[in-house]
Structures are given as C-alpha cells and as structure tokens.
Specification:
Structural class: mainly alpha
Mean pLDDT: 96
Radius of gyration: 16 Å
Helix content: over 70%
Shape: elongated
Oligomer: single chain
Strand content: under 5%
Order of helices and strands: HHHHHHH
Largest sheet: none
C-alpha cells in the first residue's frame, strides 16, 4: 500500500512537471520560429512527444516509488529535484527563449542526471531499472534533435 501511495505522489509531481513545462514553452512546437528551423530527419511527428513523455513519466514514477523505499532519501531528493528543474526549464530555454545552445547544455545535464539514476541505483533496483530506460533513451534522442538544430541553424 505504501508503494501505491508513492507511485501516486510521483505521478502527480512528474505530470505536474510536464504541465509546467508545456505552459513555459508558450506553444513552442507550433510556433513559426520552431517550424522554420532545419530539423533532424529523424524528428518524430508531434503526437509521438506526448505519448513518449506520458509513458516516460508513468515508468519514472513507478521507478521513483520503488527507489524511494530503498535508498537514503536526502541524496535521492536532491537528484530528483535537479532532474525536475532541468526537465521543466528546458522547455522555457529552448522554445520560449530560443536559446538553442543553453537548451542543449541543459538537456545534456538532464541526460547525465538520468544516467546517474540508472547506473548508481542499478544494484538497488536490478530488473526494475528497466523502468528508467525509456527516459534515458528518449533524452538521448531529444539531445540529438537539439544538437542537430544547433548545428544546422
């Protein structure tokens, strides 16, 4: 029952992050600025982003709920907070402010934080670590998309 409570709490926090990020991007993906950028040939259609992020946040919430029960919470809370801020702020930096280089730096930092979760806590969660893989893989794709835009615009 405790696990379900933590899953619910992390679902609220993580989907809250998505909502804040969406609000901060100021209709970014549909903006003239973004539409006119040279985008990577592997850029997925818009609907994929919503499906991907929803799936990622469900998996990440379950992952965090398991982890929250197993490891010291202070370090975990710091990593989670950094992840939260970087996840939310990228939308503002990239889509709202059009700071492509700063966006790339922030998404690289976010990818590193998720890699820290994956590798540092693998021994604690073992097979359950698969729950963070969608987040890590998606960030690698998103980083490549951001880098392409930086290089070709």
């Amino acid at each position: 029952m405790k696990l379900l409570k933590y899953i619910f709490v992390f679902l609220i926090i993580n989907f809250g992050a998505l909502a804040i990020g969406s609000w901060l991007m100021n209709n970014g993906p549909q903006s003239e600025w973004y539409q006119n950028l040279n985008q990577a040939p592997w850029t997925p259609p818009g609907w994929v982003f919503g499906v991907a992020w929803s799936t990622i946040m469900v998996c990440f919430s379950i992952y965090m709920a398991y982890l929250y029960n197993l490891v010291p919470r202070k370090k975990l809370s710091i990593l989670f907070t950094i992840q939260f801020v970087l996840n939310v702020i990228w939308n503002y930096i990239f889509f709202n402010q059009h700071l492509i280089t700063v966006g790339l730096i922030s998404i690289i930092m976010l990818t590193i934080i998720i890699a820290i979760f994956l590798f540092n806590y693998y021994n604690d969660l073992e097979a359950k670590s698969i729950l963070i893989l969608p987040y890590f893989v998606w960030l690698c794709i998103a980083t490549s998309l951001n880098a392409y835009i930086l290089i070709y615009n």
